């Protein structure tokens, strides 16, 4: 299975074979048992080093697809998924940053359930992203802030209402950081949060 997945991931490098590669991986992910999720996440993470920018964009989006297809059974592996996303944010490529934000949106919309039971997953999504705002890397800061916006946009209103005070407090606290390069993105996150409630 791992060899099959690695071959399909390698097809993401070429525009001519990319669509076929994505479809093969989608079929593979649909039939996957939760026991295989760590291997899939590991392969997607490792593949990033061997893929061209377009392939890296498409491969990170597969993590969001995994969450859409398998829902709550992916939650225990959320930190590993987010680690792959944060690793990709170290790349200064704008399209890759957008792909990471899209992935995080899909994670939030698939895994953060409505009501109080959605709050722990909401917090688990945000924690490493807020942590990344402290990195001394402009691309990581801007990408993490864009991903925070995506978590807010992808989460149910009730979860945002329940966490609004703490969320806005953390956003404002990070806005006061002197070396932060992502202030416009964090201001957008505050606006999205306020509009949602």
Could you provide a short overview of the structure?
This protein has 10 helices and no strands. It has helices at about 1-10, 15-30, 35-45, 55-70, 80-90, 95-110, 120-130, 140-155, 155-175, 185-195.
Description:
With 197 residues, this protein is mainly α. The protein is 75% helix and 0% strand. It contains ten helices and no strands. It has helices at residues 2-10, 15-30, 37-47, 53-70, 78-89, 94-111, 119-132, 138-154, 157-175, 183-196. Helix 2 (15-30) runs parallel beside helix 4 and helix 9 packs antiparallel against helix 10 (183-196). The longest helix has 19 residues, at 157-175. It is globular and about 45 Å long.
Descriptive keywords:
single chain, 197 residues, 10 helices
Secondary-structure element series? HHHHHHHHHH
Q: Based on Cα principal axes, name the global outline.
A: globular
This entry's quaternary arrangement is: single chain
Poorly predicted runs of 5 or more residues:
none
Report the helical percentage: over 70%
């Amino acid at each position: 299975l791992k060899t099959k997945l690695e071959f399909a991931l390698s097809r993401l490098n070429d525009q001519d074979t990319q669509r076929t590669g994505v479809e093969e991986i989608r079929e593979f992910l649909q039939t996957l048992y939760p026991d295989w999720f760590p291997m899939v996440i590991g392969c997607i993470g490792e593949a990033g080093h061997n893929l061209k920018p377009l392939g890296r964009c498409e491969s990170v989006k597969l993590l969001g697809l995994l969450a859409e297809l398998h829902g709550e059974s992916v939650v225990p592996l959320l930190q590993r998924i987010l680690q792959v996303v944060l690793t990709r944010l170290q790349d200064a490529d704008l399209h890759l940053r957008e792909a990471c934000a899209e992935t995080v949106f899909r994670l939030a919309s698939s895994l953060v359930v409505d009501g109080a039971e959605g709050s722990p997953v909401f917090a688990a999504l945000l924690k490493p992203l807020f942590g990344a705002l402290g990195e001394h890397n402009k691309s990581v800061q801007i990408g993490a802030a864009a991903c925070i916006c995506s978590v807010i946009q992808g989460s149910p209103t009730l979860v945002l209402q329940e966490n609004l005070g703490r969320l806005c407090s953390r956003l404002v606290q990070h806005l006061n950081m002197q070396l932060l390069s992502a202030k416009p993105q964090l201001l957008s996150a505050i606006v999205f949060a306020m509009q949602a409630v």
